[in-house]
Amino acid sequence: MRTVLLLSAFALAFLVAGCNETSAPRDVTPPAAPRGLYSVTGDQQATLHWLANTEGDVSGYRIYTASLADGADGPYYRVGTTTQTSFVVAGMTNGVTRYLAVSAVDNAGNESELSYDTVFDTPRPAGFGATLSNFLDGVTGAGWDFSAASTRASNDPATDIFFGYNGSVFQMFTPDVNTDIQDMGWTSNLDAIDFAPPAGWSPTGSVELIPGHAYVVWTRDNHYAKFRVTSLSASAVVFDWAYQTDPGNGELMVQRTTREGEAGRPIAWLR
């Protein structure tokens, strides 16, 4: 009988303790939508950058894209995740614009609304180390065709720009009055030139070439391009370049617009 009483007392104590025990409430509060999102246009890709969330329990970020036809409100499709504050969206099509967005996720799995900034990007082909010869030494290989990413003769109808050196001045020329060019000044790299300017084109259709300077070209068939001189000699110019395949689109690296007064796009639009 005594043994039974002891077991009953133990069971009662256990039940009382269980009734008094409380569990912490589950975290159901999502992080804030990421801020400061912008993109750097690349060749068949775009690199996203944003500001880190300030919440201590943020575990990472999810990256989404939407088509231009669907618009800035989506629907959006997830294309990746990261714990960093940058992400390369690869596999994009040059000349095709897509909207880009980022959300934050916390340790409990709560996901924020999409980023406040509306960002769209149009990738474009690019290249490095293109070389043109001096047309005064011979027209072959003195011209450049951005659309074909290849050298041409300086007098070829498809040539967009051609190089010349007269013994005192290095110059890049446009072949006709319907192609424009301008000097954008010294830059640390080609990506420093983000968007084609609306004005300021050379009235002569030519610019003096200076190592480290970047230049923008507006072609006769309404495409924008840029190049940056990496070396010069009496016989040749070497440059890096990028070309926007989307007609009339001045986006050469970065495009960012902001929708004022919004805290973030609803995650419900995702698909």
Question: Any chance you could write out the topology, listing elements then pairs?
Answer:
Blueprint: H1 2-20, E1 38-41, E2 45-49, E3 58-67, E4 77-82, E5 86-90, E6 98-106, E7 117-121, E8 126-133, E9 143-145, E10 150-152, E11 161-165, E12 170-173, E13 180-186, E14 206-208, E15 213-218, E16 224-232, E17 236-243, E18 257-258
Antiparallel strand pairs: 1-2, 2-5, 3-4, 3-6, 6-7, 7-18, 8-17, 9-10, 9-11, 11-12, 12-14, 13-15, 15-16, 16-17
Topology pattern, helix = H, strand = E: HEEEEEEEEEEEEEEEEEE
Q: Hey, roughly how much beta strand do the residues contain?
A: 35-45%
Number of helices: 1
Helix-and-strand structural type? mainly beta
Please provide a written account of the structure.
The structure is a single chain. About 5% of the residues lie in helices and about 40% in strands. By secondary structure, it is mainly β. The strands form four sheets. Strands 4-3-6-7-18 form a five-stranded antiparallel beta sheet, with no helix packed on it. The protein has a five-stranded antiparallel beta sheet with strand order 8-17-16-15-13, with no helix packed on it. The chain has a five-stranded antiparallel beta sheet with strand order 10-9-11-12-14, with no helix packed on it. A hairpin with a 3-residue loop joins strand 1 and strand 2. The N terminus and C terminus are likely disordered.
